[in-house]
Structure formats: structure tokens, C-alpha cells
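tool_call predict_complex ligand=zinc ion
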Amino acid sequence: MVVILDNGHGAETAGKCSPVWADMTQLKEYEFNRDVTALIAYKCKMAHIPFVMLVPEYSDISLAERVKRADAVYRKDRRAFLFSIHANAGGGTGWEAWTSKGKTKSDEYCTILYEEAERAFGKEWKIRKDTLDGDPDKESQFYILKHTKCPAVLSENFFMDTERDCRFIMSHEGRERIAEVHFRAIKRIFDEYGKD
Ligand SMILES: [Zn+2]
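tool_result ok
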């Protein structure tokens, strides 16, 4: 079993950044995604959990190419699953995660990720949920979720265009806590699904 870590977007992806705050700081989503993904990878490495970095490049790798790479890993290992790490935008607050539409293994993995996020952030932050279909994830048609054959979960880790959220994900503490949430979920998935 292997976890595929996707860091979303490249350095030149247009519009994926926070406003420039009063102190002139600004978050670029590609940088945040890569930093958190690297922290997760390091935790996996220390725990001897096999992982693949889907996009080692700094440039923008097309979604079609990302799907191709994920599917190539999945063909070799049918237990492989993908976590895609993002920051949210659109003026809300809090944490959420998405899976492809319909009932798949992704839903079970996403539920585990939500449990860890709730445990870590639930007292201080809004955990955004769509519980109409019985599991908490907000189902969507994000390209990578829709097109990859691999079970896939996409997390939107707080809002880069809401200042309180953005300050949190610019901080090392925030990034470390987000990485830890993902790592704990990955560990649980390996323990619960990796044996058969
Ligand atoms: Zn994104």
C-alpha cells in the first residue's frame, strides 16, 4: 500500500494566492501546498509508510498529467490512494475535504481524515461538512477526483483570503498541525486497510 501525495498547482498558476495583507505578507498556494506535503512526506518516511510525491516539479503540471501519474501508481498497487493538499478561497473559514461523487473507498478514507481534523481543529475552527449523504465530505467534481481511478481525497485547509485563516496557514504551527492531521489519517488507513 502506498499513499500518493499531490501538492496541487505550480508556481505560475494564476490567481492562487491570498490578498497582500497590511504588513505586506502574502500566501501563495503552491508554496503552502508544497510545504505541507513535504511535512507529511517526512512524517511518512519516519514511520516507514511508503509514499509517492505526485509532482516533484515546482512548475504547474497539468491535471491530465497528474491523473496519468496517479493512475500509473494505482495500476501497480491497487491499494494506493491519493491525498491532494490545498488552501481554500472564496471568503469562508475553516477546514473541509472532498471526494469524487458516489460511494467509493474515498468516502471511507475521507471520513477518517475528517475525524482527525475534528479532533485537531474542532474546538477552534469550523469543520465544514455536507452530511446529506451520510458521510461528512463535500462531494465535488474536482478534475483529479473525477478522473483518477485511484481512491482520492482533496483537503481544503483553511481560507487564504480570510485573514485569520491565512495567518494560521502562514505559520509554522498551523502547517505542522495540518500535516499531522493528514499523517494520522494516513497511518490509520494503512493500519485498517493495508493488511489485506
Ligand atoms: Zn488549490
